[in-house]
Design brief:
The structure holds 2 protein chains of 2 kinds.
Chain A (H helix, E strand, L loop, with lengths): L6 E14 L2 E14 L3 E6 L5 H8 L7 E6 L2 E2 L5 H11 E4 L11 H9 L8 H7 L15 H13 L5 E5 L7 H18 L2 E6 L10 E6 L2 E7 L12
Parallel strand pairs in A: 3-8, 3-9, 6-7, 7-8
Antiparallel strand pairs in A: 1-2, 1-4, 4-5, 9-10
Helix pairs in contact in A: 3-4, 3-5, 4-5, 5-6
Chain B lengths: L4 H12 L1 H38 L5 E9 L2 H7 L3 E7 L1 E7 L7 E8 L11 E5 L9 E5 H6 L7 E6 L2 E12 L19 E7 H7 L5 E9 L5 H12 L8 E2 L4 H42 L1 H9 L4 H41 L11 H28 L2 H5 L11 H4 L8 H12 L1 H39 L4 E10 L2 H6 L4 E16 L2 E10 L8 E2 L5 E2 L6 E4 H7 L6 E6 L6 E10 L7 E4 H8 L4 E9 L4 H9 L4 E6 H55 L4 H38 L12 H27 L3 H6 L3
Parallel strand pairs in B: 4-9, 6-8, 14-20, 17-19
Antiparallel strand pairs in B: 1-10, 1-11, 2-10, 3-4, 3-7, 5-8, 6-9, 7-8, 12-21, 12-22, 13-14, 13-18, 13-21, 15-16, 17-20, 18-19
Helix pairs in contact in B: 1-9, 2-7, 2-9, 2-10, 2-19, 7-10, 7-14, 7-19, 9-10, 9-19, 13-14, 13-20, 14-19, 14-20, 14-21, 19-20, 19-21, 20-21
The chains are: A alpha/beta, B alpha+beta.
Bound molecules: adenosine-5'-triphosphate and magnesium ion (MG).
Chain lengths: ~240, ~800
Amino acid sequence: MPSQRNAVFRARGIRKVYQMGEVQVEALRSIDLDLYEGELVVLLGASGSGKSTLLNILGGLDVPTAGEVVYRNHDLTVDDDRALTAYRREHVGFVFQFYNLIPSLTALENVALVTEIADAPMPPEDALALVGLSERLSHFPAQLSGGEQQRVAIARAVAKRPEVLLCDEPTGALDYQTGKMVLEVIEHVNRSLGTTTAVITHNAAIAAMADRVVHMRSGEITHIDENATKVSPSELSW
Amino acid sequence: MKLRAIDRKILRDIVHLRGQVLAVAAVVLCGIATFVTMWTAHRSLKLSQDAYYRSHRFPDVFASARRAPDSLARKLAAIEGVAAVRTRIVVDVTLDVPRLDEPATGRLVSIPEHRVPMLNDLFLRQGRWIDPMRPDEVIASESFATANSLRPGDSVAGVVNGRWRRLEIVGIAISPEFVYEIRSVDIFPDNRRFGVLWIGHEALSNAYDMEDAFNDVAIALAPGGSEREVIARIDDILAPWGSTGAYGRDEQIAHRFLSDEIAQSRVSGTIMPAIFLGVAAFLVHMVLTRLVQTQRDQIAVLKAFGYSSLDVAIHYLKLAAVVITIGTILGIGLGIRLAQGLGRLYAEFYHLPSLEFDVDARTLLLAFAISALAASLGALSAVRGALKLPPAEAMRPEAPPIFHPGVLERVGLMKRMPPSGRIIARNLARRRMKAFLSISGVAMAVAILVVGRFMFDAVSLMMQRQFSEIQREDVTVSFHEPKAHATRHDLEHLPGVFGVETFRAVPVRLVNEHRSKRAAIFGIDGGGSLRRLIDREGREISVPAEGLAMNATLAEVLGVGAGDSLRVEVLEGRRRVETVEVTRLVDELIGSSVYMDAEALARLTGEGRTISGAYLSVDPGSLPALNEQLKRTPAVAGVALRETVIESFEKTIAQSMTITTTMLIIFASVIAIGVVYNGARIALSERGRELASLRVLGFTRGEVSAMLLGEQALLTVLAIPFGAVIGYGLCALIANVMTSELYRIPLVVSSRTWAFAVLVIAAASVGSALLVHRRIRTLDLVEVLKTRE
Ligand SMILES: Nc1ncnc2c1ncn2[C@@H]1O[C@H](COP(=O)(O)OP(=O)(O)OP(=O)(O)O)[C@@H](O)[C@H]1O
Ligand SMILES: [Mg+2]
């Protein structure tokens, strides 16, 4: 059972308020959530429900207005920019909806960008082989398809062997087939490297590949489902 | 060594931004090149001057007398602090030079018949030393010989003590006391009509009955010798013998000119690069700010993956560093080349025996430090944006800017504008800071162009003031000795002369408390029209009946104003000392003249009315006859023709100035183009997406171009008056620091200069517009919209 496993993240009472001029936007109201070692979690919810905000806070890209986030005994909410940078550098891999590759660097260089500052990375070539792109090492992002770009982004995220992999709508801009291929890669990394993984999606069908599914609405977690049996991404359909 | 991926990004970004990178590098190049040129030339000139002074023993103190017995030489040498003394005879004579219509003035300077090392030693460029057995042999100064194409073997005729004598030129030489050869009454050198001829001491003393006597002395100080005390002692010794007062190097005219030139190269070598590098800093700022903005998401990714803010900042600083380094290295290379050229030119102009060209490592290090400073100033504020950017924020596209109805809406102007006009107006109104920066950039370019041409304007005004308002005579005649006032009538009967105004020049020392200055008081008649006095506003003023009319610059040096009194020590005749009031200030740009009413001056000296010379107006057709006559008049020491003076000015000073000014103008143009081009490119890359969207919506290429270029054109038009103000301010600054005791730089900017600045900016704008327009024509709509920005 998940509850017997070690929690990687413990989030309690997270609240996030954005100040926009005179208007306050409450992106997260009161979030309590644990993520466990090696599990794959899918975050589901309508647009604007606070998924990205939550993921950014877990990844140390942003800090909550109130509440507490602990990553393995390490309180992220009291960290300054320097400590958060070190945390991201050592432990977190990100995959973004729009890939966010550096357009002026080749696929290999985009991965090297991260491995060069990591402690015990895998060779960038291996990371790209892991996502099936050994043939595209010296292509620039503009010379790659969307799916290929997203796979480079995943290679970039996993190459430093992070303990957590955070993916914000990794298939959002991809077609059905390509999207499935990307999900397979994520699942493969989660399974073979034991990386704790969180994936944001709008697509309920994808939830079947997760250990647990977190449902969000208006800045709150409505409920959490546990899948008794996980479905391999190749068997998903939507 | 393998380049890190993040550093590879720098190189790729540079290639991508090559147009702008080139513009920034070019500006840095210009700034550094000016800096290195001026400083290296300055240093080389200074070293050359020092070396020349040392090798040819330039003295420290100078004095002249009417006729002092040789026995005084020993007394002078015995003064404490004096290391060496050279006594000699110096007389000015009228010369008849081959191929020259007018009479020229020769300054005969005595030298030992047998060559020995001495103060103010000669450097023989051609020919040989004089033969002791031939009293008519002379060595001519190089500038005089060159100007008149004289070579050893040629001869000139001179009126030596009232008798014509052929003077055989056997050698051509230079000497440190004559790096700048100028007749005392002139304001700049005229090498055709004035020159030094070195002649055997015995020959000269025989001709002038100066056996066992001298009338000029040069003195070298011993280390630690006090110039002040030595001068006082010399004056004590020589006063009974008609001395006009001893003086130090600071009043030796050739030394003053050379030293001022050296000092000025330092000043302009500091101001101009400062302006250029300020612009470079500004451009770096524009380019980097823009880059940081377009690369928001890339910065976010770097930060998301654990690059610290510092890493990111350093990344962009490195990019600036690469660009600046390219400009600096090329600038140093060009600067050294130009400095060689400029140094050679100076060496030629000042007749230095050799150019000690030396590139100082400290200057080069300083060049790097300055450009690094400029880059950091420009880059830091831009990169601060990247530092502050929170990674989560940067990940989403920049929020659409907030538009408020502005002033234009409120007054109902907007409704009457076409949509493209509205877009331009709203963009400018919203991005006021950015618009202000763009305007400042172009304004700086305008300012630099104005500054570049300013020296031309200043010098033409100086010329105009001097030669059409102050000096209106055709010919100036000066005598060896003061003559009776009645000589005036002889002058009136010379061929072609229809106007004569006489003057009396009296050497004096002007003293106000601890400040003192040697000068000549010009006694002129009131109501004259050939020599006029001008006040600060350029209005003619009359010579006061009593008191001095003094040049404002000299008055400042002496610390007196109109209404103050000072002590006047007459340095000839009865050597009276009187307190005289400064009644008026006159505003002459060149020289430091002091005028007085001729009657009042006669009362001051107590010697009755005599004249030192006269200003003549002459019928041009009679000039040859007049010249012929003046050549044969022994009393005449010198003749200056206005036309030829102007001509020689243009040949010498204007020529040396043209080179530096041309360099400035070229550089200024490069900068202007760099700024304008950069502005247009940045506007294009910022607005490319918006413009592509408009194209998709059905706007034509022309309409889209008009929108972007219209905005640029509006910014440029707004920038011009702003730049004019900055430019005028910089000119004022330069006029202020370049002004010396020898001349004052007037603050004038001609309409030609304004037009030039506007034209260059307009041309740069049109050129940039064409480049940008071509890019808009080939704008790949799909490409632009696909990329996320
Ligand atoms: N920087 C910000 N400033 C102001 N409001 C913000 C900001 N970022 C997010 N929000 C607001 O917070 C709420 C949650 O945003 P968030 O991006 O977490 O939603 P999401 O669930 O990821 O939506 P989507 O599925 O569309 O990506 C939204 O209402 C959004 O408008
Ligand atoms: Mg989101």
